[in-house]
Amino acid sequence: MRHITPRTISKAAFSLSLAIFGAMPAAHADEGGVGAWLPGTFGSLAATPLTPGWSLATVFLHVSADASGNVAAAREITLGRFNRNVLVDLNVNIKARPDLIAVAPTYVFGTPVLGGQLAVSLMGVLGRSYAALDGSLTLAGAAGP
């Protein structure tokens, strides 16, 4: 009969955890990092009983996004008998500042409907969106002897 040591148990636990967690797919961000749900409209407490009557939910959404990029490239092109080096430089900046407010009045009925609690909501969204794109494209060496 073989004696089981703590080292044998730890090796078995490591092998089992590697088999379980190593086979799981990698997690990816929703919508490239932007959630599809507004805050407060989806959650694990969705089945919690509510107090009958009216309620009002407001959500303010402000996003401040900036991005920029600078790309430079050089390429030799042939036009007829002439070989030319063309240098291309592209610099682009983008800014986005949307401000949105969502208003959602909800009425919760006190009497059960089909064995559950019925709630009716209507959401309206009002806001403005600001976006700016600024860029420059520079070509050098395309003309000349």
Walk me through what this model shows.
With about 140 residues, the chain is mostly beta strands. It contains one helix and seven strands, in the order H-E-E-E-E-E-E-E. The strands form two sheets. Strands 1, 4, 5 and 6 form a four-stranded antiparallel sheet that branches. A hairpin with a 2-residue loop joins strand 2 and strand 3 (about 80-95). The chain starts with 5 loop residues before the first helix and ends in a 5-residue tail after the last strand. The model has no long low-confidence stretch (mean pLDDT about 75).
Oligomer: single chain
Low-confidence stretches: none
Helix content: 10-25%
Per the principal axes of the C-alpha atoms, what is the gross shape? flat
Strand composition percent = over 45%
Determine the mean pLDDT. 77
Number of E strands: 7
Could you spell the SSE succession in H and E letters? HEEEEEEE
* Distance linking N and C termini: 91 Å
Number of helices: 1
